[in-house]
Amino acid sequence: MNVRTLCLAILNFGEATGYEIRKQSMDGDFSYFVDASFGAIYPALSRLTEEGLVECRDEVAPGKPARKVYSITPAGRRAFIEALHQPVAPDLFKSQFLLVATCAEYVEPRHMAELVAKRTAEMEKALADLRAARSDCDHPGSVWALDYGIACHEQCLDYLHRHGPQLVAIAGTALGAEAAE
């Protein structure tokens, strides 16, 4: 999957401006799927328009600059469906928190406790956001994906609650040895 497919996916649910597509892909319901920078979305929309997969119209409102509104074409919907049938790459998971946890013995225990508390709060917020999105959603595939995300976040949060103190206990165990050397 790539930014093109992400743009087609968003437009499959309804027309949108480039700004709205960017917002959905960075902070909205589609932010969980593919990394899409601001600089990648507009070139993708331009190419999709040139290829006839997306149409663009200018929308004028009194006292405001014209904005371009994109919509998917029948050819774009076919290309989107074809893209959905391609093999998908494994999920990517990168975490600076887990790097610090891996090297916990070199981290002051107080700092590690703060990191665990911050990560727990972040997970609780993400879980609340997913639950809120789920309560407003009636699209079957989206409901399934939201439920999957909720289950993953619940497991992470449970692990932090049960094993966070263990990580804090590991913290700093090598600092005394470092100072002695």
Structural descriptors:
181 residues, mainly alpha, Arc Repressor Mutant, subunit A, three-stranded antiparallel beta sheet, 8 helices, 3 strands, elongated, Tscrpt_reg_PadR_N, WH-like_DNA-bd_sf, PadR family transcriptional regulator, WH_DNA-bd_sf
Produce a short descriptive summary:
Residues 8-80 form the Transcription regulator PadR N-terminal domain. By secondary structure, this protein is mainly α. The protein has 8 helices and 3 strands; from the N terminus they run H-E-H-H-E-E-H-H-H-H-H.
Mean pLDDT: 93
Uncertain residue segments: none
Beta fraction? 5-15%
Question: Mind summarizing the main beta sheet?
Answer: 3 strands, antiparallel
Principal-axes geometry comes out as: elongated
Number of DSSP-assigned strands? 3
Count of runs of 4 or more consecutive helical residues: 8
Strand-pairing-aware structural class: mainly alpha
N-to-C order of helices and strands = HEHHEEHHHHH
How big is the Rg?
Answer: 22 Å
Helix proportion range? 55-70%
Count of distinct structural domains:
2
Spatial arrangement of strands, main beta sheet = 1-3-2
- What is the CA-CA span between the terminal residues? 50 Å
Domain Transcription regulator PadR N-terminal: 8-80
Pfam family, one: PadR
Protein name: PadR family transcriptional regulator
Organism: Tepidamorphus gemmatus
